[in-house]
Amino acid sequence: MLVVMPAGATTASPPSKVVRTLWDPAIVESSGLARSAYSTTRLWTHNDSGGGPYIYSIGRTGRTTARYELVGASHLDWEAMAGAKRKGVNYLFIGDIGDNRAQRATIFVHRVREPRLGSHDHLLNPKTYEFRYPDGPHNAETLMVRPSTLRIYIVTKAKTGSGEMYVAPKALSTKHVNVLHKVAPAPAGLTDGVFLNRHRYILRGYNSACLYRHLGAAPRRFPLPSKGESVTRGWRPGHILIGSEGRDSKIWQVRLP
Length: 257
Hints:
By secondary structure, the protein is mainly beta. The protein contains no helices and 23 strands.
């Protein structure tokens, strides 16, 4: 699929390498990726639609170390994952935001506390937020959470032209539908994104990504070493981790331009 990226500086392929392979046969289409806040080697992932309400803890060797079920969580089309910390508590956010036919009246984001290794309870009770767009349904695969504030951003996946970035209200309700607010245009064909800090963020497509210094800034576009749908912050400064697709999919470490 052709991914239309905005105008801006373009760099050559940055240094990259495979850092692990996801060996679990139950992970057939890794669609979200998040770095653990408790470990310098642990990753989290989940399957795309049809995979059930499960998140997987992935260790250094690429083997699954634990599987957790989000009790009662919707899982029509899980497309993205994000990690963030506030007031000493580490959270994982999972976005049930996919909508290939643009028919869903509302979408959902589930929030759980990140489980610690060694936990024997593999059932998680999520806090679920329901959202709607102000201008009708959209397909989206990009969920970002701003560090410290836990502000949720969702970016639509337009097939042509450009997508849009939406932000959730500061105060969220679990009882009523929350209305998203449009804040900026975005490239078409996006598959994920991540905040690197309070201001800098990455938006990725299948084959390339854009680095933004702040909201609305001109991006720096760079190619990615593998087609995929996920991105998270790397453990090494100035690096990101990206996921690829299919069984035995690879996780790549990519140095930012």
